[in-house]
Amino acid sequence: MSGKYKTPMLDELEKGPWPSFVTEIKKAAKKSDMAEDELGQLEKSYNTKRGYWKHGGIVGVLGYGGGVIGRYSSLPEEFPGVAHFHTVRVNQPSGFFYTTKALREICDIWDKYGSGLTNLHGSTGDLVLLGTKTENLEAVFAELSSRGWDLGGSGSAMRTPSCCVGMARCEWANIDTMDLCNELTQYYQDQLHRPAFPYKFKIKISGCACDCVAAIARADLSIIGTWKDSIQINQDEVRKYAEAGLDIQKEIVDMCPTQCMYYNPEDKTLKIADAECNRCMHCIAKMTKALRPGKEKGATLLVGSKAPIVVGSLLSWVIVPFMKLTPPYDDLKELIDKMIEWWDDNAKPRERIGELIEAKGMRAFLEAIGVPPMPQQVKEPRKDPFFFWAESDFKK
Amino acid sequence: MEQAELQEKIYEFMQKMKGKKKLKEKDIIKHISGETGEDKDVVKKALRAMIDEGRLMYSYGGGASSVEIPSEEYLREKGLIK
Q1: What value of ipTM does the predicted structure carry?
Q2: Chain A residue closest to B25 (CA)?
């Protein structure tokens, strides 16, 4: 670093036991004017308690409507290195697996055309490259695509689908999240690169209810692996947990959200009323050797979560309690197409699908996608009726 | 209708709407299909070709994406004019 800027405020963020983003920007600033001016502008922001970024605008690569997010400094004369500081989203591989060679390749491209700063990964799931100039965009894209990379989604489009590590690394994966993620990414290429929706649409896939990609909180369509039959119990292992000191009554049974478990301390056995179980994974995650998901595997589809941008935040809502998912996933694709069509036909600009369901009602949504009302769809049992019957539903 | 003729219709519409309303792809397809009687997929194909050659472009503002006639600055940046 040339020491162009004194950064006493940012220096505070280097103290303490954790890795610091300030340290990383300082490292990048040794080689990059962009990173150096980023540091200067950020220090100014901390001093004045104001942000100096302008968002949006018309930047992108020819033919694509997404993948580049325009960022401009509102102080370009003071910080010329960040006059343009656009973000490039690169479509990540399923499950976020990379070879070191692939990562070096990305880093070399970004050192050449950008600030050298990256963000692995953005909340959408993309590999995020921070800070480049408008005139470099086509060159970055050409270099990335010549090596088999593609841009991710942004704007009013299908956003890059993302998934947990699934069967590649996790014994609890009830579905092949990585295959499904790749399949949906390929299927929705057009919608991903050419924004034609009322607003963003995110798909996230988790192999089980531990939900490592937080699909239930962040995706318009959350696909979460589950099972239909009974949890597999190994009573010998249950006994070993008890003998090793695990308080099964307190840690497992009393914390079960549906209270569907019974533990007998006399013979150290565990019983589960599977009909009452909501497949939350708590007991399985706590007693990994004793309990396993059932054998009839598939996924629950939930719709509508979002962060609080236009109106408040929402969590996804169960729409299909159980769906078998086998390649090429035609049933699932057909259902997603119907959801998107209804949303596209009815939503106002910048209205997410969850907001539209709240506005139009679950009945309209379920009718449009051809899914019958089911008890599992009731979000708040005994509080509100969610499905309003029409006159035509009654036989006279 | 020939694709070139259809593209002229699309361009005329875009010029008419410039500065008045942000148009999504779907708004354009719906309007032109209604006006010309051409199938929506045919209009979509013509529109996409215009975007690919830089005659129209995707834009982003206020959180939503739209389609616009590109500025000279954009065309210059993409090397489509000098």
Answers
A1: 0.85
A2: A196
B24/A156 CB distance under 8 A: yes
Residues A376 and A303 in one domain: yes
Write out residues in chain A with pLDDT < 70, as ranges.
Answer: 1-2, 56-57, 380-388
- Amino acid identity, position A191: Q
Using CB atoms within 10 Å of the CB of residue A98, give its burial: 0 to 12 exposed, 13 to 18 middle, 19+ buried: middle
**Chains A, B: CB pairs < 8 Å:** 67
A132 shares a domain with A19: yes
Domains for chain B: give ranges and CATH numbers: 3-77 (1.10.10.10)
Contact A58 B65 (CB under 8 A): no
Beta-sheet pairing, A162-163 with A203-206: parallel
Contacts for A384 with CB less than 8 Å, ≥ 6 apart: none
* Cα three-residue angle A349-A351-A353, rounded to 5 degrees: 135
Cα(A246)–Cα(A240) distance, integer angstroms: 9
Determine the 3-state secondary structure of A93 from DSSP: coil
Q: Is B49 on the interface with A (CB under 8 A)?
A: no
Residue-wise pLDDT for A138-159, tens only, equals 999 999 999 999 999 998 999 9
Q: Closest chain B residue to A136 measured between Cα atoms? A: B77
Bridge partners of residue A224, in order along the sequence: A206, A300
Range of the domain at A15: 8-146
